[in-house]
Amino acid sequence: MPVVLGTLLFAFVAGSAGQAAFAQTPGAAPRSPLAQQQALQKQQAPQKKHNESALMLLGGYPGTTYSGMAHDIAAALGGSGGLRLVAVNAAGGTESLRDLLLLRGIDLALVPANVIAYASAAASFGPGLHQRLTYITQLYSEEVHILVGPGTDAFENLRGRKIAVPSEDGNAEFTVRDLLRRLRVEAEVVRMAAPDAIDEVRSGALAALVLMGGKPLRFVAGLPKDGSLRLLALPSTQALGDGYASAGLRPDDYPSLIPEGQTIDTVSVSAVLVANNTAKSDESNRRIARFVPAFFGALSELGGPQWHPKWGEVNLSATLAGWSRFGAAKEWLDRTTQEQTASVQRAFEEFLSVYHPLGAQPLSPMERKQLFEKYVQWTRNSMGAPNQAVRP
């Protein structure tokens, strides 16, 4: 036993001495807190770089128009400026606005103008929404389509009945409930797949199916001309207030449902690209600031024939009354407007040097009008008159 104990004691002392000697070896010394932090930052650098170039955009559920719009933007952007846009599914309606304000990691969202107007008026998310929300631009508008049977002639006829909306289109559901509330009509809103709802409208079990989208909607345009369905007119926007604009559905939109020479009065709701204006991370703000010029430049491509024709209606100079525009977007628009003004001025001066040289007699109002018409024609001949997809 003494020999064994002595051997174990020797091994312990020798091991301890070895560990002490190893700990004192310069190459194997424990890392200092600073060194550990630097090593961690080096490991996280690729992740940070990857995230700095990616933006999260709330669109809608797959199959909805807002989902398609978000994916259109991502595809047109195509990595411009080293950016990547990630389209994220969203419930639509006020839930999209809630996610933008509260959900971690979301940079931008597509939100209907009527949702923004309602959330502000009802203070759905507390006071000061005008300070907490900022917009990049309004995009194109979507028309409200109300499909009814032949016995329904006015919106008032929907009172006390069932109205269907597509199952996962939160924007359409919100709009129907908002219209019913604003027009003081009590009705039950149910979710249902559009093809099933059409059969229910024909049978009379449902009063209407409401769809939202940029006309012409393929589903509506494909309905047969058998007299079993019609598009219902809506009251003017004066009875509705903020968030809506007047619109019309015409025979060339839906020849099987609208007779020649008639127009169905309805309303449209514009999609608004918005950002959270509360205390966000500097990285998010920098991503959005980089996104703005890349996106505005990509809008020209979205005006092409391969995209929805509604993209050709985007007017970047349109403002959202009462709301502030994101700083980088405002700066881009101001700069572009100044550049265009300077370009027009130079072109007009060149035109005057040809048609009204220095020293000539002052122009009369009629001559000035005629000269302006010549200038317009000269501009068209020299620069062309393309169908601009983006009007700054």
**Helix and strand string, N-terminal first?**
HHEHEHEHHEEHEHEHEEEHHH
% residues in beta strands = 15-25%
- At the fourth level of CATH, the homologous superfamily of the largest domain is Periplasmic binding protein-like II
Secondary-structure content class: alpha/beta
What is the CATH fold-level name of the largest domain?
Answer: D-Maltodextrin-Binding Protein, domain 2
Report the average pLDDT across residues.
83
Strand tally is 10
For the record, the CATH architecture of the largest domain stands as: 3-Layer(aba) Sandwich
The CATH class designation of the largest domain is Alpha Beta
Number of H- or I-type helical stretches: 12
Assign a percent range to the helix content: 40-55%
Shape: globular
Radius of gyration: 31 Å
Q: Mind summarizing the main beta sheet? A: 10 strands, mixed
Give the N-to-C terminal Cα separation.
Answer: 96 Å
Query: Which blocks of ≥5 consecutive residues have pLDDT under 50?
Result: 1-25, 383-390
The total number of structural domains is 3
Characterise this structure.
By secondary structure, the protein is an alpha/beta fold. The chain folds into three domains: about 30 residues; about 280 residues, 3-Layer(aba) Sandwich (D-Maltodextrin-Binding Protein, domain 2); about 50 residues, no CATH class. The protein is built from twelve helices and ten strands. Strands 1, 2, 3, 4, 5, 6, 7, 8, 9 and 10 form a ten-stranded mixed β-sheet that branches. Strand 5, helix 7 and strand 6 form a beta-alpha-beta unit. The chain is globular and about 75 Å long. The N terminus and C terminus are likely disordered.
